[in-house]
Amino acid sequence: MPKIPKIVAVIPAAGVGKRMQTNCPKQYLSIANKTILQHTVDKLASHPSIISIVISVSKSDQYFASTRLAEHPKVRVANGGKERVDSVLNGLCAIEDQTVDWVIVHDAARPCVTHQDIDLLIEQCLLQQTGGLLAIPVRDTMKRSYVEDKTAFVKKTVAREHLWHALTPQMYPAKLLKNAIEQALIDGETVTDEASAIELAGESSLLVQGRADNIKITQPDDLAMAEFILLKQQDYSCE
Description:
Spore Coat Polysaccharide Biosynthesis Protein SpsA, Chain A
């Protein structure tokens, strides 16, 4: 009988979300009667392949302790870092079970991810025995810009073939990802997501096409879109 892999999720949730222009970090804003972070955790915690979740929160966080997540049986808390990559690394270091095979890293502000997309990512990574990420092919015409007097102008049209939008979750062997991030930080490299750390380590990542509605809440108008998507998902689950 094949071994069932142990998969742990890490959610970096120490950001303040300045672009949201709100009084609290965006992950604690409420949509569809729950905080964004609660929606995100619920999606991962209810997935049968994920055995536990580590959430990296800021040391100055004044909100997490008062949420239901603080008592969630699948949730462990780690200290957040200055940058997202620091929070991810702290989350990886907080995984107590040293026999964990794979880790899934997911943005706190992506509450609309579906189990179907998580299934697809896990399936492809295990099939190919390599890490990967959810992504969507670029659909729009892409422009490279330059700035003059604080105004952006088009410098060049960039061919969109072979360009993808990187999403999360991103899934990698736990030890590989931890080592890749640690080395990248030692080298002073900029790590914007897990795939970039893996790339710097000379390894490849699968691109697994996901759903376009797996949006990241970044701007104020994203809240209404996320609420619409979540309510639609609830409607479909009740049918």
